[in-house]
Design a protein that fits this description.
It is a single chain. With 209 residues, the protein is mainly α. The protein has twelve helices and no strands. The protein has two domains: 96 residues, Orthogonal Bundle (Rna Polymerase Sigma Factor, Chain: A); 73 residues, Arc Repressor Mutant, subunit A (Orthogonal Bundle), CATH 1.10.10.10. It is flat and about 50 Å long.
Length: 209
């Protein structure tokens, strides 16, 4: 052996013949993708990209959506996270979704700031148009959305991961169990409930501070 972690395309292709892609865990797919397995990367994209698109669109102000392709932004961020997440971190339940959310949220905030720095448009009557809120802010209100993010930042990666997958990505409990190596859907439900209680306490503290 040459000691390299990279696998040849032929060896990867041979190994892929026996893979149950639909049943493979995300952690196993991450391990394969980090060795250059494009099929594993495609499977991760297929699992996460549609939900992440909806999630990102809800957090990007209209002005930013006018100047950036949300699909390209999300896919680029997802691929970078897959390739950047180290092998040790990828084996920690909750590390991938927590890191993914943090990375993508930072990209969205950068795009929102970039859009806000552009010259403001005026309407036909000469009135200046104010920066538009994101759909999430329109639904929750800007202050409540900010409190939610601040409280979420106070939680650990495991709590952030289960809440992200359940509340923001809309995953079923069985899906969360599979993603985070929980023994059952009931175990995932309990984890979500406990994380939700901690989030509520943190939001209360945020509002009082």
């Amino acid at each position: 052996m040459d000691g390299s972690s990279e696998k040849s395309p032929q060896r990867i292709a041979n190994n892929n013949r026996s893979v149950d892609w639909a049943g493979a865990s995300t952690r196993s797919l991450l391990d394969r993708a980090q060795t250059g397995d494009e099929r594993a990367l495609e499977e991760i994209l297929a699992r996460y990209l549609p939900r992440l698109m909806r999630w990102a669109t809800g957090r990007l102000p209209r002005a930013a959506r006018d100047i950036v392709d949300t699909g390209d932004l999300v896919q680029d961020s997802l691929i970078k996270v897959v390739r950047a997440l180290g092998g040790f971190e990828s084996r920690r339940p909750g590390a991938f979704p927590a890191y993914l959310r943090r990375t993508l949220l930072n990209r969205l905030r950068d795009e929102a700031r970039r859009a806000a720095s552009r010259p403001r448009m005026v309407d036909l009557h000469g009135a200046e148009r104010h920066p538009s809120p994101s759909p999430l802010e329109e639904t929750m209100g800007s202050e409540l959305a900010a409190d939610y993010e601040a409280a979420l930042d106070r939680l650990n990666d495991d709590d952030r991961a289960v809440l992200f997958l359940r509340i923001e990505m809309g995953m079923k409990f069985a899906e969360i169990a599979a993603e985070l190596d929980r023994p059952s859907a009931d175990a995932a439900r309990m984890a979500v409930n406990r994380a939700g209680l901690r989030l509520a306490r943190e939001m209360s503290d945020v509002r009082q501070s």
